[in-house]
Design brief:
331 residues, Rossmann fold, 2 domains, globular
């Protein structure tokens, strides 16, 4: 299993088996009779709290299933009622945050893909005394928007890691495919690649329409004969780009960010060069557990700094091991 970095913090938590969870609300088990809070695999004996996890997930993106699974496992351990909602449109995500405030939740974990649209409503949450943790996107603005910590990968560094690896392997003309224009994390990834490989081109596609992604990328590869590698910024996008390479009759190789079981298998098979994983299960788990720790003891995990869950490079040398975890839905 690949290593990950915790900066200025170590998250230590006992894990209990997953409980049956509803589609819209995840509910942990009853507190253990023992006073051994969160010890020995038992559910915490601390008072039950309600935490809202609000993401910008688009329908069908398996990445968010992994984030949610981590959050659900932390909720089961910590005696937390988890309210999970998502919407890729920033204005509607802001409405979901307001809904959580109205429900008087005990904490909010939120992704900040388009932070400007969430600024005002998160101020309302802070004014209501609701602790906020951000995850996945928005590390650079997390503290400004009221979060006491952030769980995720530094996307600029992740992009630079990809660019460094591509440059070392002799690639000079990457195409970096962004599936949502204006998403701060995705833009930072491609900027990081371009910082290390100046010949990088950016291609914007509509990530909500995979048929469109495939045709747009195919046209780009047909027009750009010097493109030697195309980079997807998420596993479903990358798997679609494999089809585009075949359709275009291109010799371009394929690299990726993020992971699912199918992508891990493609790396094992040699169809994809590598991916850079931000370890989303840890993001969901850490965000919920940090709110619980804050409520039970006033603890601020991270010491005011982001808690890094990546980047972790997965290539042919370690993909087989990671595949085992991906098949379990935790990578």
């Amino acid at each position: 299993m690949t290593k990950f970095s915790w900066r200025k913090a170590t998250l230590v938590a006992a894990v209990v088996p997953m409980l049956a969870l509803s589609a819209c609300s995840s509910t942990g088990g009853k507190p253990a009779d023992s006073g051994n809070a969160a010890g020995g695999g038992q559910v915490a004996s601390t008072p039950r709290i309600k935490v809202a996890l609000i993401t910008h997930a688009a329908a069908g993106d398996t990445f968010w299933d992994i984030v949610r699974k981590g959050a659900e496992e932390a909720s089961a351990k910590d005696n937390v009622e988890l309210l999970y909602t998502s919407d890729p449109e920033a204005g509607r995500q802001a409405q979901l945050i307001q809904q959580a405030i109205d429900q008087k939740v005990d904490g909010i974990a939120v992704t900040l893909a388009k932070p400007e649209a969430l600024k005002d409503v998160l101020q309302k949450a802070a004014d209501a005394g609701i602790p906020i943790v951000s995850l996945n996107a928005g590390e650079s603005v997390s503290s400004q928007l009221g979060a006491f910590t952030h769980f995720g990968s530094n996307e600029q560094l992740a992009g630079q890691a990809v660019g460094t690896k591509l440059a070392a392997d002799g690639y000079k003309h990457p195409v970096c495919v962004i599936q949502e224009q204006g998403h701060v994390g995705l833009e930072a990834r491609c900027a990081g690649v371009k910082a290390k490989v100046p010949g990088t081109e950016i291609l914007y596609v509509d990530g909500k329409d995979m048929t469109s992604v495939q045709s747009t990328a195919t046209a780009k590869l047909q027009a750009s004969k010097d493109a030697d590698v195309i980079i997807g910024l998420g596993a479903p996008i990358t798997l679609t780009l494999l089809k585009s390479v075949a359709d275009a009759g291109s010799s371009a190789k394929v690299a990726s960010f993020d992971l699912n079981a199918e992508l891990a298998q493609k790396i094992v098979d040699g169809a994809v060069l590598f991916t850079v994983d931000q370890q989303p299960w840890l993001q969901g788990y850490g965000a919920v557990d940090a709110i619980w720790q804050n409520k039970r003891g006033g603890f601020n995990i991270g010491g005011g700094q982001p808690v890094l869950t990546g980047p972790a490079v997965i290539d042919k040398s370690n993909a087989a091991d990671v595949l085992t975890f991906a098949q379990q839905g935790i990578r």
